[in-house]
Amino acid sequence: MRIGEMKSSFDEFWGEFRKVKSGMIGLVFLGLFLMILFFEPLLLPFEQANSRWKDITYWEDNPASAAPQWTNFFSSKKSAVSMPLEVEKKEVKNAGTIRIIEETFLYDYQYDAAPSDIIFRASGQANPTVIISVERPDGKKIDLLRKPLEVTQGKDLRIAIDKTSLNEAYNFLKSMDAATGLSKQTLKTTDILFSKVEDSIVFTPQALKGEYKIMVSLILQKETDVIESTEMKVAGRVHGILGTDNSKRDIWSGVIAGVKWAMLIGLLTALVSVSIGVIYGVISAYVGGWKDSLMQRIFEIFISVPMLPVLIVMSAVFKPNIWMIILIMCVFYWVGPVKTVRSMGLQIKEETYIEASRALGASNTRIIFKHMVPLLIPYAFASMALNVPGAIVVEATLSLLGLGDPNIVTWGQILQDAHNGGAMLSGMWWWVVPPGMAIAFMGMTFAFVGFAMDKILNPKLKTR
Amino acid sequence: MFWKYMLKRVFYGIFIYIILIFVFSALFNTVMEQTLRGQIDEEIRAELMALDNVGSQQIQNFIEMRRAEKFALYKLDKPIFERIVWRTWSTLTLNLGKSSSIRSAAGDRNVWAIVSEKIPRTLILFSSAMLIDIIIGIWLGLKKAQKAGGVLDKSTSVGTMVVFGMPSWWLGMILIMFFAYTIKVFPSGGLHATPPPEGIAFFLDALYHLALPVMTLVVIGFWGRAFLTRNIVLGVLQDDYIMAARARGIPERKVLYGHTMRTSAPPIVTMSLLALLASVSGNIVFEGIFNWPGMGNLFWFALQQNDVPVLMGNLAITTGLYICGLILLDLVYGLLDPRIKVGAKA
Which in A48, A131, A390, B207 has the greatest CB count within 10 A? Predict the structure, then answer.
């Protein structure tokens, strides 16, 4: 087959493919996935999601087990969303050798449920005394923290108000005569900070909406002390596009980061295994005789293996990485197209031009790869497309059992964490639905494309 | 002729099984032996505790003596090839050894006892799901083929593609979340309520626990089956003799259910049996999610406990069942389809 012939047969194929609506929808979805792949850095709210997925310190400023932000839209009780706070003003005062950095952050609180935490971060090299206080819209001021702390290179200053300031918040309640008969263990700092001061503050807190001013002063004693950057973040009750899991990881980031692994696993496995299977089938058909019989017997041994249990036992014993998993899957998947390809090969073999080229002295390799394999390429593409979802599901299944590659983020691993973290029990649907939807959606994409190709290539499937 | 074909097929199946068990034994030899060595050391330590008033030299002697005895018992003193052959042989004779931690309901640590307890449960779950699945699938497939390209055909084909890459265990997770925790109409998993009720209620309770997993499997399963049935039937409908039958004025219903079904039956039966086989060996995670105490759940459990003898035994039996199924399939196919010249070279 020449290049020109190939092009014209491709054009013919494309002409038919365009008419199949589901195939075109599949291509659009595939394009969508490729776009996600390409623009991944822009789509990830947490840039290091890939490399630090298992690193809990990377995610510690997020709320744990928070629902997606947009759920507020459907709920009558609006929850605080996660966001960074703006600096209203920043001042540096000098008093002799002592420097005081004063920053005021503004938080416009217009929700019904208080945020789960407020976090202050600073980096640099210093031993500052940190003073944090908050001024509420009702004019009441609460001192939250006054403590000498240490910042070094590589170890940021991180203050989580919710945990460190419970005492102060409790004392504030007491000074307002609203804490009668309460135990400190049952209180939550942020609930106190963002609610109206009433006797019912603990059990049915009423949100105090308005502008909150959070003031931070850092007192630096030494000339050499440096504070480089400061930031204040609100960890909401709802978070991001798809919420967070119980170890505060952003699920949207995980799902996006998982796209490339699913694509890699599915496409590579399908490409390698179908190529091997097609070539094996063609050779088996072409050589014939006892060689064909032997090749068929080897093939039968491979199809007699129940794939998933073997794969699981092997992964459990050898703890492979992702490349090994792909390789092992190829070992089981190559048998898929062999039978069909062999029967197709037997037909092609009888064509006159094969005989002609043999008479002209063409080598077997040449006949197989030049004349027979190209005719099977359309079929190969269709079965590749249909093999992709299977490979993705198998990897997800291995991951769900905890046998995946721990160095990457796959949808299966997110689901494993969800299963282990009791997401089903606690109704955290945003942790279970998106990764599975992603698997199903990618499977659907390739199924649309594969079925459409199959429909065109398989004349028996044409409707009357 | 059929008997000869049958015998040949069975012998070939046994041959493949032996090869596979040999390969598994070779692959897992090192890991199995590590586990075994640890187990032996532990047993000897336990025996030492029982002894008292012995000198350190005697202890040393005792350990070495017992270790040599046990090594001889498990053939650990023999060369590696012999050990692999021995392990292959003991697996083939269903001498699967003892688990390292898992016990059967009766407290037995014999792997065979543990596995044989689980097999019926797996079969009940998957065969009942498959039965419903096949009935719906074939019925829908026929309807689709009858009016190929029609509204029903097109819409259900889209359904087929939508569930094509959907993991059944994920749908299971979603349905458990909804039916067991949100609206609380089904149990979240397991075989029985605790404590299991008695008498007729026992069976009703088991059915009640069976409902959700079976429902999940059916919801995922029948689409693909309908699509395949449609394609097979459609292929047959384009054959010349159907045209001839139609031309003779035979009613459409009779053409479909009489002529077409007779030719379509073998591939449809094959497909259904093959799906049953694949599901029995493939739904490890599914049983884990539903906490259904069958073979798959045992795999899951053995993985978490790192119980290699159970893994190996479960694998050997699963493979055995799978190959038996494949043989059965070939035989059924030979019986159903007169066009297959049984015994002749394919």
Answer: A390
pLDDT band at residue A463 under the 50/70/90 scheme: very low
Q: Residues B229-270: pLDDT tens digits?
A: 888 888 888 778 888 888 888 887 888 777 887 778 877 887
Q: Token digits for A50?
A: 């890939």
Residue among A397, A444, A446 minimizing CB distance to B285: A397
| Residue A204 scores a pLDDT above 80 | no
Q: Rounded CA gap, B167 and A419, in Å?
A: 14
pTM of the model: 0.87
Return the number of other C-beta atoms located less than 10 Å from residue A144's C-beta.
25
Instruction: Please state the rounded mean pLDDT for residues A424-450.
Output: 91
**B19 chain-A contacts, CB cut-off 8 A:** 301
Burial B236-274 (b: 16+ CB within 10 A, else e): bbeeeebeebeeeeeeeeebbeebbeebbebbbbbbbbe
The 3-state DSSP class for residue B89 equals helix
Write down the ipTM of this complex. Answer: 0.86
Contact B308, B32 (CB under 8 A): yes
Q: How confident is the model at residue B342 (pLDDT cuts 50, 70, 90)?
A: very low
Q: State the CB neighbour count (10 A cutoff) for residue A152.
A: 12
Selected residues 261-290 of chain B with any CB under 8 Å from a CB in chain A = 277-278, 281-282, 284-285, 288-289
CB contact (8 A) between residue B238 and residue A312: no
Q: Do A436 and B238 touch (CB under 8 A)?
A: no
State the Cα–Cα distance between residues B231 and B224, nearest whole angstrom: 11
pLDDT at B341 over 60: no
Q: Do B284 and A308 touch (CB under 8 A)?
A: yes
CB proximity list for A125: less than 8 A, separation 6 or greater: A151, A152, A153, A224, A225, A226
